[in-house]
Amino acid sequence: HMRLPNHAPDVTSLSAKQFQNVSPVKEKIKIPQADKIEKIIQFPIRIAEGYDTSEKMVGVFGFTIRQSSYYRHAAEILGLVRNDRYRYKLTDKGEEYLKLPAEKKSSFVCKLILEFPIINSIFLEISSDPSKLITKQDIVRLLKRQSDITGDTLLRRTRTWFKWIRNNLGIVEVDMKGNVRFSRQMMFQGK
Question: What is the pLDDT of residue 2?
Fold first, then answer.
């Protein structure tokens, strides 16, 4: 069952190029285990509001302490926050993110997501050959080559991030079987 975003992303102002230029970051080999990306990217906003410890985050999001640390870790891996002696602080990227107008935030986060080597290689494959479909099996094979976590968990996480990109930017498509392809809407614009 696919939940469509309340507003369909406007892909007209986007080009594949701006996302193909993202270089993968070797250290981003671990894909975060937080499933709700919306919450990850709210982390810097909450920190700026003064919710700067895991106890305070638990209150804001209704997390357990364990979930709170997953989400903080995810925001850390994305490069938005850092942990400084049990206090959460914004990184330069986190500060930059907060200053962006709402319509630029998704592209900014998308580029951070594309720094994950696995997501980067899938995106480059589908955006350089828009007729290409990356199947679940393809993703599993890529994951085996690039990461120390295997199996369903990583596959599920990879799909979660692609679905977020689809829902927020519309530059990729993810179908019910979890196949990923470049957005046909983008193809027709010849971008």
Answer: 45
